[in-house]
Amino acid sequence: MLLEPTPDSPALARDYCDSVLADTHCDPETVGDARLVVSELVTNAVLHARTPIEVQVLVGPEILRIEVTDSGLDRPHLWAERDRGGRGLPIVQAVASEWGVLDQGSRKTVWCEIAVNPRAEDARQPAPRVPRSGGGGGGSSRSRSASAS
């Protein structure tokens, strides 16, 4: 999803997150955590980058990944808690299992991963059997990045 840096962008990003997660196996707590994190990351991009923002919500069997990309020059920092503001990344850090920043020259992506808790009705059902095929890799990998400080 592409967004302009406006005050409406965090709400639009939450709506997008809801639409992506609507038909997934994520429980309400995971959905709530994703909404919170996407809102915080987009708010940071609106306030600090002031450039167009790209939001991606990617759902895997065990991990939900949120990526927020902008062209701002500033890199995110964890600040000591202040009376006003500065709580976005500490919230992300508390909710996410991992987070970091991918520096792409003129762009940066702040990403985080949240463990997926299955909905109660999904947890009671046995996992579907996946037929094994002979040969071929077919494995998946996740890249890891150092957390920003």
Highlighted features:
single chain, globular, 32% helix, alpha+beta, Heat Shock Protein 90, 149 residues, 5 strands, five-stranded antiparallel β-sheet
Q: What's the helical proportion of residues? A: 25-40%
With strands numbered from the N-terminus, the spatial order across the biggest sheet is 1-2-3-5-4
List the domain count as a whole number: 1
Sheet bearing the most strands, described? 5 strands, antiparallel
- Low-confidence spans: pLDDT under 50, at least 5 residues? 126-149
CA gyration radius, whole angstroms: 17 Å
Average pLDDT taken over every residue: 80
The CATH architecture can be given as 2-Layer Sandwich
Helices and strands, in order, run as EHHEEHEEH
What is the number of beta strands?
5
The total of helices stands at: 4
Classify the beta-strand content into a percent band: 15-25%
Structural class, please?
alpha+beta
Shape, principal axes of CA atoms: globular
CATH domain class: Alpha Beta
Q: What is the CATH third-level topology name?
A: Heat Shock Protein 90
- For the record, what is the CATH homologous superfamily label? Histidine kinase-like ATPase, C-terminal domain
Distance between the termini: 27 Å
How would you characterize this protein structure?
This protein is an alpha+beta fold and 149 residues long. It has a single domain, classed as Histidine kinase-like ATPase, C-terminal domain (Heat Shock Protein 90). α2 runs antiparallel to α3 (88-95). It has helices at residues 9-21, 28-49, 88-95, 120-123, and strands spanning 2-3, 53-59, 63-70, 98-104, 107-115. The chain has a 5-stranded antiparallel β-sheet with strand order 1-2-3-5-4, with helices on one face. The protein has 4 helices and 5 strands. Helices cover 32% and strands 22% of the residues. Residues 126-149 have low confidence and may be disordered.
